[in-house]
Design a protein that fits this description.
There is one protein chain. By secondary structure, this protein is an all-alpha fold. It folds into 2 domains: 129 residues, no CATH class; 160 residues. Helices cover 69% and strands 0% of the residues. The protein contains 10 helices and no strands. The longest helix is centred in the C-terminal third of the chain and has 39 residues.
């Protein structure tokens, strides 16, 4: 009876959050200091012609999506080998574990879908911006839960904790590069330099531990897997130091910073699912090259858009030279 009452109360409280999410996808968060619009509890989803612009603080957006995804939990009880509570635990704690589990899973799934949409859409277009906003919020919740929960699980989760911190840092810094029209050096770059350097050093330590352990792994991960920490952490640290030296990024440098950081963050999420969770896919899929291709898809996107951006910049420089030569003559 207690479970039924809690589920009914949760349903009533979360119905209003559906409206906020639909508004968010329509307009997105822009002003941090404006309050959310309070909507009637039983109004349900609004229609597109009823949408109106409003502004939501990013922290509240994350809470809204976490509560909204909990609606999927109401149909059953969550279970996972690495996130479960004893059967005699209080009902509220069980529901809390369900919230954490399903928010992490569905936030990651939603992030992969919107990340795919943002990768294939035209950069800077309406669809790219809207999909990028949903990707930011959903992956922010997914990465934050992974970073907070991993140290408290019974099984070894040290590589997963570092991977979550790396993905979260790349996500936040990549979004920041896209939102700032004029990107100048700040305290955030100093903190980013410390974080990225720590991640690179953690990768080196994990590689050393794995090569000298009896199992040849660190919490089930081989030493070669930690090259990602070393490479991504080193590149990110170099980028932060460069910003601190030159004080301001050019428009093209801001685009490159946004591009590679978002793609690497996307790559960590895709690799965690397709390569790290083979039990959720059928055997024919796992035995084929598809998991490796799906995991590496963000890297292909990074290579493609980097080449295209360089090509467009080269074309623009040639056009400017021709126009300057024509103006002189």
């Amino acid at each position: 009876m207690l479970n039924l009452k809690l589920k009914l109360i949760t349903t009533v409280l979360l119905t209003r959050q559906l409206n906020r999410l639909s508004y968010l996808f329509n307009c997105g968060p822009r002003k941090y200091w404006r309050k959310c619009v309070n909507l009637p509890v039983f109004q349900g989803l609004t229609l597109p012609w009823q949408w109106r612009r409003f502004h939501v603080p990013p922290i509240n957006v994350t809470i809204v999506i976490a509560k909204l995804l909990f609606l999927l939990v109401l149909s059953g009880t969550a279970s996972a080998a690495r996130l479960e509570v004893p059967p005699d635990t209080h009902t509220a704690l069980k529901l809390g574990a369900d919230i954490i589990l399903y928010t992490h899973i569905i936030g990651g799934a939603l992030g992969l879908i919107t990340g795919l949409i943002a990768s294939l859409s035209k950069k800077g277009a309406f669809l790219h911006r809207r999909a990028g906003r949903v990707f930011m919020v959903s992956m922010l919740a997914c990465y934050a839960i992974g970073a907070v929960v991993a140290p408290f699980l019974s099984e070894g989760q040290r590589p997963n904790f570092v991977a979550a911190i790396l993905a979260l840092y790349l996500l936040v810094s990549g979004i920041q590069a896209a939102r700032k029209r004029t990107y100048t050096a700040s305290t955030f770059n100093i903190a980013g330099c410390i974080i990225s350097l720590s991640i690179a050093l953690a990768g080196v330590v994990f590689m050393y531990m794995g090569s000298h352990s009896e199992s040849g792994t660190v919490d089930g991960s081989p030493p070669d897997a930690f090259l990602l920490f070393v490479i991504a952490g080193t590149l990110a640290c170099i980028g932060e130091v460069r910003v601190l030296i030159i004080k301001q990024l050019s428009a093209q440098g801001r685009v490159y910073r946004h591009l590679w950081r978002m793609c690497f963050s996307f790559f960590i999420a895709s690799g965690s699912l397709f390569s790290g969770q083979p039990q959720v896919f059928p055997e024919w899929f796992t035995a084929s090259p598809l998991p490796a291709l799906c995991s590496a898809f963000p890297l292909f996107v990074l290579i493609y858009w980097t080449i295209k951006t360089l090509w467009n910049a080269q074309k623009k420089r040639r056009r400017d030279k021709q126009q300057a030569a024509t103006a002189i003559t």
